[in-house]
Design goal:
The complex is a heterodimer of chains A (about 220) and B (about 160). With about 220 residues, chain A is mainly α. Chain A has a two-stranded antiparallel sheet with strand order 1-2. Chain B is mainly alpha-helical. The longest helix of chain B has 26 residues. The chains are: A mainly alpha (about 220), B mainly alpha (about 160). Chains A and B meet through helix 1, helix 2, helix 3, strand 1 and helix 4 of A and helix 2, helix 3, helix 4, helix 5 and helix 6 of B.
Amino acid sequence: MSVVGECLVAFIFGSVVGLLVQRSRFCNTAALRDAILFKTYRNTKALLVAMMILSVGIPLFITFDQGNPMSFDVGLNTMIGLFLFGIGMVFAGACTVSTWVKSAEGNIAAAWALLFTFVGMFLSSLIWTVSYWPPAPPSMTGQPNLEALQFGFANAATIQNNLGIPAVVFGLVQALVLFAIYRAIRRKEAARQATQTEGAAVARPKLAAGPAAAE
Amino acid sequence: MELFRKTLDPVIALSAIAVLDLFLFLLVGSWTVGGGETMMTGLMAKWILGDDIARIPFWSLMFVPDAGYWKIYISLGMFFGALVGAVVSKEFHLRIPRRLTEWVLATVGGLLMGIGIRLAFVCNVSTFFGLTPELNLGGYLAISGIIAGAWVGSRVYKKLLEV
């Protein structure tokens, strides 16, 4: 595909995503933060469903050597980087998607956070060295490189090649694990709702009898 | 139009996005946002610094500023789509933070997100919608990191709200 074609596909995809995220008020930050702080799972459930669909779809394409998976080494930097990102997104109240979406709704705090995401990226670029750390091509060999805290590269395609089992099988297993988490959340919500309904039913006769009876 | 009058169920919205993401994966590549934002940073730095940017190895070896990088247009598209949604549904309002704490949190949060993306080479979108569905080892490392970070961030955030 030509460069213009790629950019056009990306823009159309982004536009639909932006519209759907804005209209649904989905937020990746809320999917984690609300589950941790408030034990509410509106966004978490949506995230899990999307991941279930992708966990079947993407490995299915990879099974038949189709699609364009990401290909680079990962290491301790992946975990530490996302740890910092996780703290940052909760502080900012928005992630990479919602900073754009909320900025488009006129949220100046989100636009400010986005501006400082750019600043953070620029500051990181100043300390980057081609020779060692944070990881750069010479330390990314495709194999574990513990000296550079790199674990190498492994994805659905390498698993399929090494084990001879179609990648989609592992994708289905992952989707089932995600579904189990989803179902556990639904059960938790149902139990909470039942407790609340029960509580309201107990409180109603007491209130009907008057405030003194409720005491 | 119903879409602009009522809030859409996020499960439906994210299911539709996941299906679209499959097409993006087939046609161009995995959905990420951090890569496009990095390239935008490079383009802005080039605009401000001019040719001096070539003295910073990252921008001459890793991410040579290029306006034709397709991932930039995902972010611009998200802004455009959200703007259309907000304006048509009359949900566009300028909201300026009133308290200093909000400005500080947005500043620190933004910086941590930018530094985190560059250190990890991935963002939250590539974690949940790219690496993990691709069964990439990095997806599981990134998910562990982001959940731990969100947990720590949530605890600190709660403490700050109580002050």
